[in-house]
Amino acid sequence: MGLFDVKKSCEAGQVDMSRLPRHIAIIMDGNGRWAKQRGLPRTAGHKVGAEVFRRIAKYCKKLGVEYLTVYAFSTENWKRPQDEVNTIMGLLKQYMLEAIDSMEEEKIRLKFFGDMTALSPELQELVEKTNAISKHIDGVQANICLNYGGRDEILRAARAFAQQCAAGEKHPEELTEAAFGEYLFSAGVPDPELIIRPSGEVRLSNFLLWQCAYAEFYFCDTLWPDFSEETLDAAIIDYQKRDRRFGGVKK
Ligand code: IPE
Ligand code: IPE
Ligand code: MG
Predict the structure, then answer these.
(1) Where would you tag: which of 10, 89, 231, 246 has the fewest CB atoms within 10 A of its CB?
(2) What domains appear along the chain, each with residue ranges and CATH number?
(3) CB neighbours (10 Å) of residue 68?
(4) Which residues carry out catalysis?
(5) Nearest ligand, CA of residue 81?
């Protein structure tokens, strides 16, 4: 496809399937406001939000996106009222139970990024079960960021490397960007080319701070429960119009 054709297909509102991002990351935000607008409790928004995640993961698989990383619960979200935290954890449990049964058939490999030790023993067990099944699946990889913070991730990596240095197993000079990446939750996963934040907020809120170095950002006002296949198409089409220079000059 020539440059003109690419431009034309973008203008016509079509995703160019030959230039898809390999990895899309999404901050699933706006559940609470969506519910409030309808006079419902915030938890109702999280329920719909979980459904939307299922749909979008399937759509990514259909498109051929290899990795989808979603922000489900941050290291800061524990500040929320206990009943809201409980509802979110309950939805995650339900999702994992369903995923354990359907992952193989749906060919969606699940991974969890974050500090799982703060979760209930029951949830930790489900995470382990899900991870074990995931090892045998090759399909799209969905990374769910749960009790995840970008700073926490970097700090853990630094600590782990420092400990290996102290034990004489590693030397500071060995630490390259690639080597450091192997200490992160995202080890082995390419950086996201596209990071999407719906809901009108224009900030990262501690999401993928290391991995976002050269990501393209897409912000939109849609609240996550209203996010659809069309919204994702619009984000990808916008991404496909960008000129990614990586510090170089325009070709
Ligand atoms: C995102 O929606 C879900 C989580 C952070 C768990 P919010 O709950 O943040 O929704 P708003 O931003 O308050 O509308
Ligand atoms: C970020 O959204 C975390 C998730 C979507 C899971 P928040 O709603 O917690 O972020 P802030 O508080 O608006 O920065
Ligand atoms: Mg929010």
Answers:
(1) 246
(2) 3-9+23-240 (3.40.1180.10)
(3) 24
(4) 29, 77
(5) 1
